[in-house]
Amino acid sequence: MFKLSERTKRLVEALDKKANERAGYNDNPMSGAIDCLTRFGKFEIGWRESCGSTDATMHTYRAWCRVAASMKRDGITLMEERGKHGNGYATIKGGFWNSIIYRVEGHTTM
């Protein structure tokens, strides 16, 4: 189990608010990611890159990177593993799909 600092909690709230405004509905992607890490000990985030413009999934990934960095500053050990995707070609809108699986070291499921 891990505990977030108040600074990280405020960052998650701010980034969720920004993501919700961008999406036009309440999705709370950062809170969802924290919930997955808390409950299951792992979380996978994916994004599309090299598609000519910044994809919405890239905005979410960049926000998550900020949360992950803040968690690491809190002393939480996050392990990162690149997701494997059999997409050696561009997606329909262009770009390639990538993902990273984050795991919390020493996590035990509840």
Structural class: alpha+beta
Mean pLDDT: 86
The total count of strands amounts to 3
Q: How many strands, what sense, and barrel or not for the largest sheet?
A: 3 strands, antiparallel
| First-to-last CA distance | 9 Å
Low-pLDDT sequence parts: none
- Looking at how many chains there are and whether they match, the oligomeric state comes to single chain
Q: Name the beta content range.
A: 15-25%
Helix content: 40-55%
Q: Secondary-structure element order, as H and E?
A: HHEHEE
Biggest sheet, strands in spatial order? 1-3-2
Task: Provide an overview of this structure.
- This protein is of the alpha+beta class and 110 residues long.
- Helix content is 44%, strand content 20%.
- It is built from three helices and three strands.
- The protein has helices spanning 6-23, 29-40, 56-73; strands at residues 42-49, 78-82, 96-104.
- A three-stranded antiparallel β-sheet has the order 1-3-2.
- Helix 1 (6-23) packs antiparallel against helix 3.
- The mean pLDDT is 86.
Secondary structure elements and pairings:
Layout: H1 6-23, H2 29-40, E1 42-49, H3 56-73, E2 78-82, E3 96-104
Antiparallel strand pairs: 1-3, 2-3
Helix pairs in contact: 1-3
Q: Which key features would you list for this structure?
A:
single chain, 110 residues, alpha+beta, 3 helices, 20% strand
